[in-house]
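Figure 2 data, in text form.
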Amino acid sequence: MREKAAIEELIREYYADTSFGADKRAYDEPLLNHHILERIAAIVNAEKCAAELMAPVYARDKYFFRTCPPPKGNLTEAQLEEVRRFWAPYSFAYRNNPETQRYFTLMSGKFDPSYLSFGLHYLYLRKFWNTIETPFITDKNDYDILFPDVKTPETIFHRINGSYYDASRKFLTDKEALEKCKEYLCEKGKDLILKPAREGEGRGIVFLRRAVPWNDNITAFNDFPSSSDYICQVVIENHASWKYSQCTGLNVARINTMNFTGKPEITSSYLKTAVKDSGIVNMATGAWGILINDDGTLGERAVQTHECKWHYEFPNGEKFAGRKLYNYEKVKDTVLLMARRVAELKAIAWDVAVDSEGDVVLIELNACGGTEEYQVHGIHPYGCREKMKEILDEYLIKKFYYERADWEWDYWEFKNSITICKYAGLKKIVQVPEKLKGKRVTAIRRHAFEGKGLKKLIIPDSVVLLAKNALADCGKECEIHLPPGLQEK
């Protein structure tokens, strides 16, 4: 009923709109009815798209606050005002929740108005940073092709598109793949891990253990989803300096790199470390995060993000503050080498370890990691507040827009301007408005008047950018009036 009432209101609005023309009855009734229905659909769909644009971001923010116990305390009025001032320029695009800044300020003990939510970072900004589909880059089966000079855990076989291949890409039958598993488990005494090729954060991982009966390993092998691509590798051990407890699970350095200028930089790093025998070291399942200093020494405390807890020693009493990770300089060099090689990804979260032989080992790369584990330490995931502002200015002001529509135009609404996408009216003499929704019309996109059969088109002085072919096919005999000096780009 509410949708019907809204549509009826739109129809009344249409007939009351004097800007359309003096006499709507001049048009054939079927044409007019079709036009009304078409524009109603465009208006409704545009409003729906605008309403849904940031909805996943806000939903993810709410999920974080629901799952992470909030620390006690409040920001001061001066701090709240600084938060409001920092985020005010972006309110057209994104409504910041100051609970984000309160959480990370109280957790870290360091105030920063530019702390940002994971929802904004991962569900909106990432689409600008990593602008192409990258299944090859993020596929674990292809790490050896992308980074042949970087060590990875020994590969037993690849499963790609339903077929098995050994480490050199030689075809294997199902039976041969299983026999290889048996050789490593039963003869060489090595545990194996099956990793989904395009999943991260430990999702979907299965272990084959030499300590369990062979038939149980066969079952685990056969139960792995047959539709999934995955890789089977030998489970590696940490170098002694990287492992300070007796818990199983591989401790890894989670290192964020950012590349906005053509030269990747390491912005933050922490050690994901096991505190229980889970096999998978993941922050969401209880691992602790310890800040890694630039010289490879560990910070003085570890965070358990999802329980809002700080720790200064392991459960068994072992200290970690000030300990130094072996070969960390080589870890940093290796990460930057790899980041330069995959410049398609501007933001990457690397999981890297040093094995028992002292070698740097790539475990996983994630196209844009999280923010929580850094900000709880008071470390900005983008490096600093100034860099954050530069990024937000670019993507929440300059490039952010809502899709809009009215009775004659499809357009993009930016914070301070309007870009015309399409003329959808019925008139043959068209004057592009200088303003829509109170904002200046400054640009016209490609083929905006295509197929409209116009007689006359007037472009106002407010327009400073005409896309290539913006006026193409607007009418064979159309008389076009452009502001002085304005040309298609």
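Caption note: The radius of gyration is 29 Å.
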